[in-house]
Design goal:
Length: 290
């Protein structure tokens, strides 16, 4: 069975679900998923997991992400990007670069952010954007996010480009809206490229056309997304025990997930123990027959 991970360069105009459907058809497999939704208008890094690799998607949940953002001042839409309807406009001119950089830098650190109405967050089993399309505004709970770094790249009188690295769950459209409030000006996110998701970088992405041409050669190893975990090689006896879901008594780090391999350097699964003197409890046992 085909399995592995593809670092897809998602083009603008496709949803993340569209990309998953494309990969599913291309490789003729059912088990396909992605790590980190991208807006249809956005482009960039979209890791797609195939086969047994889908069982590892949960470990991508805490990946931080990096984006390159173009923000235009003077107009505002109901979606916060160029896809929405114009709701406000005003004559605006950006401040000097040092002042603009100071405003951007003020967002570094931890803060609370309210998800936009045009988002895939579910409330009562329904996505927020579905409510928004019906003209219904729902109260949303704020969430804690972190901006690790933000830098100004280029600006004109009404447009500027910046890079941002942030925690999971950060909405860039909301960040742009918050920047607009500090500028005292309506703004719209006019372009967005995700440049990194955890260990997956824009420079290593593959277009849909390249994936079609390469076939299985486009696949990264199943463990490429969990290299941040320490690894342990098991003996044959330990391998047999682990494959049957048994606990493993072996020296290694506690309180964090650990990758288990066999002597052929094949990933067997993931385990964890609560304390140094305890045994490893299997968390994920991968099927070697697939």
């Amino acid at each position: 069975m085909t399995q592995g991970i593809i670092n897809v360069l998602k083009p603008p105009g496709m949803t993340s679900h569209d990309v998953v459907a494309f990969i599913r058809r291309q490789f003729k497999v059912k088990r396909v998923g992605h790590a980190g939704t991208l807006d249809p208008a956005a482009a960039g890094v979209l890791p797609v997991y195939i086969g047994q690799a889908t069982r590892l998607i949960e470990y991508a949940a805490n990946f931080d992400k990096s984006y390159r953002v173009e923000l235009t001042v003077g107009r505002e839409t109901d979606t916060g990007d160029d896809m929405g309807n114009l709701i406000r406009s005003a004559l605006c001119v950006l401040p000097e670069s040092d002042q603009l950089l100071s405003i951007l830098q003020s967002f570094k650190g931890n803060s609370m952010q309210i998800p936009p109405m045009y988002s895939a967050v579910k409330i009562d089993g329904k996505k927020l954007y579905e409510y928004a399309r019906e003209g219904i505004v729902i109260d949303r709970k704020s969430r804690s996010v972190t901006i690790y770094d933000i830098s100004l790249l280029h600006q004109t009188d009404t447009v500027f480009l910046f890079d941002v690295t942030c925690s999971k769950g950060t909405y860039i459209r909301t960040l742009c809206s918050d920047i607009g409030e500090k500028l005292n000006c309506p703004v719209v996110m006019s372009f967005l490229v995700r440049t990194r998701v955890g260990c997956f970088d824009l420079n290593q992405t593959q277009t849909l056309e390249e994936i079609v041409a390469k076939g299985d050669q486009a696949l990264l190893p199943i463990d490429s997304a969990i290299q941040f975990m320490p690894s342990i090689t098991l003996s044959e006896t330990q391998e047999q025990d682990f494959s049957h879901g048994k606990q493993i008594n072996i020296t290694g780090p506690a309180d964090i997930p650990v990758r288990f391999y066999n002597s052929k350097n094949q990933l067997l699964g993931i385990a964890q123990k609560a304390a140094e003197n305890l045994q490893y409890q299997p968390l994920k046992v991968l099927n070697s027959n697939e």
